[in-house]
Amino acid sequence: MYEKSYGSESFAQVAASLASIARSFYTRDWAVGTSGNLSAVVDREPLRLAMSASGVDKGALLMHLFLLVDEHARVLSEHDAKPSDESLLHIRIVKERGAGAVLHTHSIWNTLLSDLHATAGGLAIEGYEMLKGLHGVKTHEHREWLPIIENSQDMLGLADNVGDTLSKFPDTHGFLLRRHGLYTWGDDPEEAKRHVEILEFLLEVVGRTLLLQRGNRQGRFDDGFGDDSR
Amino acid sequence: MYEKSYGSESFAQVAASLASIARSFYTRDWAVGTSGNLSAVVDREPLRLAMSASGVDKGALLMHLFLLVDEHARVLSEHDAKPSDESLLHIRIVKERGAGAVLHTHSIWNTLLSDLHATAGGLAIEGYEMLKGLHGVKTHEHREWLPIIENSQDMLGLADNVGDTLSKFPDTHGFLLRRHGLYTWGDDPEEAKRHVEILEFLLEVVGRTLLLQRGNRQGRFDDGFGDDSR
Amino acid sequence: MYEKSYGSESFAQVAASLASIARSFYTRDWAVGTSGNLSAVVDREPLRLAMSASGVDKGALLMHLFLLVDEHARVLSEHDAKPSDESLLHIRIVKERGAGAVLHTHSIWNTLLSDLHATAGGLAIEGYEMLKGLHGVKTHEHREWLPIIENSQDMLGLADNVGDTLSKFPDTHGFLLRRHGLYTWGDDPEEAKRHVEILEFLLEVVGRTLLLQRGNRQGRFDDGFGDDSR
Amino acid sequence: MYEKSYGSESFAQVAASLASIARSFYTRDWAVGTSGNLSAVVDREPLRLAMSASGVDKGALLMHLFLLVDEHARVLSEHDAKPSDESLLHIRIVKERGAGAVLHTHSIWNTLLSDLHATAGGLAIEGYEMLKGLHGVKTHEHREWLPIIENSQDMLGLADNVGDTLSKFPDTHGFLLRRHGLYTWGDDPEEAKRHVEILEFLLEVVGRTLLLQRGNRQGRFDDGFGDDSR
């Protein structure tokens, strides 16, 4: 494990934070079957990231399973493992947003919603107090547009799509890859984790709201149930 | 951390209880992404509350992250942190109800139901044995009306709405803020925690009952399924 | 805590088992807000049960919170606490079935199903391999009829209803109290716990099957989806 | 417990892995009420498997509750317990696929889907990134066909059905037994566990997609909600 300190965060510090976050995501079923990946910036000039290794059980992710990579996802630390297949996406997000940490989850609700709203190219979430936990958001009267990008195995092409999407939507706090999952980021691992928790929560609220809405013969969500509501 | 003892509860005692409760709420997904807040009365004359700090991860909430505040939410303890943004709501509830502890959760079901029944201004829950765990309720044949208040970032105005609602509904054990969450209280942290667990349970039962009801073409919940019920 | 040994099980042994079971039920959200109760036979002649105390948080239930009671629910051990309000139901079940342990849970799904099928007086569960875990059941081609009894605060009357129901349905492994919860039992705490887990699982399967069935415009559960099924 | 080493895995090693996996499945509600079973190959010539004992609480499954069995499910280790009733299924899967470990879970969603698609004889899952975690799958543009086999108490007949199904679908990574559960396997316990997590995740996504789809009056999943999507 690479132990030298760089810039404002040491590799060991961020790897430990990310490992702890990964295990908590696994517990919540957001990173099962070795899915999901996590990264954090260790230095900016030149760009160095701590990146989770590929194919690791996130419930057992420990510090030593992080690699130091450069901006081309080349491994700099002495390590047998490969970095996550999606390293180029993390790197692009860091560059576009100046993020300090990038997190990727596969959850039931982010997968369902990424599919449901794919044709619209994204989904809007607004009016929830929970949105205030997103960086820079001060009121529940905020409209968060989460873009949905088509999934692809061509990582270079996908990284370009991610970059274009982030340019086109400079205020978004995350995006969905269709039938794949959620990407979000933050200034540091803690903020990125907070963003994941908020967006996963809101995606489930939005999804379940649709179920309640769709089952209603009149098509409206709020039926003025009053005393009938039991 | 402020350690002096006041009245019937010491600050340290209630802060420890509330911290433990916060962590259990986080585990249940009722306080994710730093949402939720908790308070307990340390003294009544003058009014002193232990209040959770603003923006703290409730899964990592420890005793030292509670502040001592007065009835205007001014911080009395030596502490770098800010008290919860919603401190004025806690204070109003304590004053209106003589509560010993106030708890606020953001859950999937309390968020969904706060939205679904907003037009009606509240929802009724009745007939469930679980209602007997609410303070003063002796039978399942109890009708609990949970008012729904529109959310706002104007804390002074919102505290007044809360106060008015509590005066108008003197028997209610809690209320919902639309697209925000649940507030409930108790004589002490343990009772308030019991109330949260009961109301969160019942809100999920009510919500899922609606799904079963709405999917039914005849619109009735109980269809006399008998042997067809599988 | 009463420590003398009786018959085949000592009080300490069964209280420890039940306390552990209670805490696992609380973790599963089957005994929140102090709901639920547990008992086990300590001696048969005369009848002595270890009974959970009333109003205790099941997540914190320890051995010392069990009382020794007789067949009239009178407390024999030196204990400040009251026995569960539903002690008479436990005693009646022990007498009718010769059970060694009786467990009572309040879960989302047992509450929903107890309401949904109330008019039919019960619900049938058949064809599931999971049924084989019920005492005496050797094949999935078993039809389990779970009676639903109307809830009441009149414990004497309710105990009689429970007794009558158990006489009328000698093969049933459990019953539901409407808008209240599930009662099941076993030869010992371990078997009763296994029964709870199996019935709670099956009630959720039955409930979710209804949702899938009701949402289907043709009213059938299996639509021969084949390749459309995604 | 049988401690001699065979071939590439020692009995103790695989029993420890499987016990840990069983307890994690129990925590996820995939092996409640003593359901589920697990095996791993200890030697191939002659065939020797570590097999979970019958009727054991999977939340308490420890290494010593595994038995060494031969290809006829006869117990070779000195052990009072019986091997799992479904040992012959594990053995057949090992022979047909050359698997190193076989895992069987009973979950809410695998039970629901096994029933829903029974008439079609199976269900297809395609287009999800999560499929890439299955052995040999390199892209999300993979179509996984999960056969559904009718359940039976005739283990010999059922083992033959399993064998025939595996021959007929040489690429499948698992199969469902109707109203019973999921069987999957891998080169070792870790891979089999990864397969369970992936398939259980995808079965829930498929099931919940159906609910969202069925509730939609137009019958389409993606309605181009755009800004209406809340």
How confident is the prediction overall: mean pLDDT of chain A?
90
**Multimeric status of the protein:** homotetramer
The helix fraction of chain A, in percent, is: 25-40%
What is the radius of gyration of chain A? 18 Å
Give a count of the beta strands of chain A, DSSP E runs of length 2 or more: 10
Gap between N and C termini of chain A, in Å?
A: 57 Å
Order of helices and strands of chain A: EEHEEEHEHEEHEEH
Overview features:
alpha+beta; disordered C terminus; two-stranded antiparallel ribbon; 33% helix; 230 residues; homotetramer; 5 helices; 10 strands
List the helices and strands and how they pair.
Four copies of one chain form a homotetramer.
Chain A: E1 5-6, E2 9-10, H1 11-27, E3 37-43, E4 48-52, E5 66-69, H2 87-97, E6 101-105, H3 108-116, E7 122-126, E8 143-149, H4 155-168, E9 174-177, E10 181-186, H5 189-214
Parallel strand pairs in A: 8-9
Antiparallel strand pairs in A: 1-2, 3-4, 3-6, 4-5, 6-10, 7-8, 9-10
Structure description:
- The structure is a homotetramer of 230-residue chains.
- Chain A is α+β, with helices and mostly antiparallel strands.
- In chain A, 33% of the residues lie in helices and 20% in strands.
- Chain A contains five helices and ten strands, in the order ββαβββαβαββαββα.
- Chain A has helices spanning 11-27, 87-97, 108-116, 155-168, 189-214; strands at residues 5-6, 9-10, 37-43, 48-52, 66-69, 101-105, 122-126, 143-149, 174-177, 181-186.
- In chain A, the strands form two sheets. Chain A has an eight-stranded mixed beta sheet with strand order 5-4-3-6-10-9-8-7, sandwiched between helices. In chain A, strands 1-2 form a two-stranded antiparallel ribbon.
- The termini of chain A are far apart.
- Chains in contact: A-B, A-D, B-C, C-D.
- Chain A binds chain B through residues 24, 28, 127-130, 133, 138-141, 190, 193-195, 197-198, 200-201, 204-205, 208-209, 211-212, 215-217, 221-227, 229-230, and chain B through 29, 32-35, 57, 59, 106, 108, 111-112, 115-127, 151, 153, 177, 179-181, 206-207, 209-211, 214-215, 219.
